[in-house]
Amino acid sequence: MFSSRWYKIWLSMRSSLWLIPVLCVLIGAVISFLTLSLDRVNDYDLLGESVVGTPDAALAILQTVATSMVSLTALVLTIVLVVVQLAMGQFSPRIVQRLLRDRPSQFAIGLFVATFVHTLLAIREVDLGSAEQPGHVPGVAVITTFALALASIAVLVMYVHHVGQALRVSALVELAGTQTRHLLDKMYPDRGDPYPDETDPSVVTAIKSGVFSTSGLNVWSRRPPKGTAASSCYPPWAISSPRAVDSF
């Protein structure tokens, strides 16, 4: 009972949308503490103002990055909700769980919130100074913020491309098909009979699912003679079946 309960908790955490972003928040905090410690050890002189700018400029940049990360996180969450709504309304509700476990969405949200946390912790370390005492800038933390911001922009572009590809009907059907095949392999581990002899020109075997479009051999240029068997394809989910799936 105890192990079953923990297994259910693990499955719930694994299929949740928040696990990876929360871990990324912790990673962002650790990165911030490490970079700030490195700046303190070097008395904030490791990188000069020619690289990170003046305290006023660094503070303005950090505030801009923090505000942008909040907007990007809200944008990704909105896209996820829209995709889930479309999947429930136009396709099968069974696809929703798979969409919520989408790793690119989780890593995009995680990178944005990690950058936000790192930037917040770096802002409090910027000292604007006064007329009597000049301020200082945590150079390593600011440079790390620049790197995270550039990475966030690249991830945003790739994520938009990923969403466009994932919303295709073929991609959603492939999601359901892949999950079904994994479930069948788990419930019925017996792979069945091996593939037939590949030297037989009347049989075309497939190592993965997909749509047959072209062949390297000129075997489709004419119809098979009357009374002969049509060519056959063996999809991965039908390996255990003793009969082939006719392609004609």
Can you walk through the features of this model?
The protein is mainly α and 248 residues long. It folds into 2 domains: 2-182, no CATH class; 193-248, no CATH class. It contains 8 helices and 5 strands, in the order ααααααββααβββ. The chain has helices at 2-14, 19-41, 49-52, 55-90, 94-100, 103-123, 139-166, 169-187; strands at residues 127-129, 134-136, 203-205, 232-234, 245-246. It has a 3-stranded mixed sheet with strand order 3-4-5, with no helix packed on it. Strands 1-2 form a two-stranded antiparallel ribbon. A hairpin with a 4-residue loop joins β1 and β2. α2 (19-41) packs antiparallel against α7 (139-166). The longest helix is centred in the N-terminal third of the chain and has 36 residues, at 55-90. The chain is elongated. The two termini are 52 Å apart. Residues 228-248 have low confidence and may be disordered.
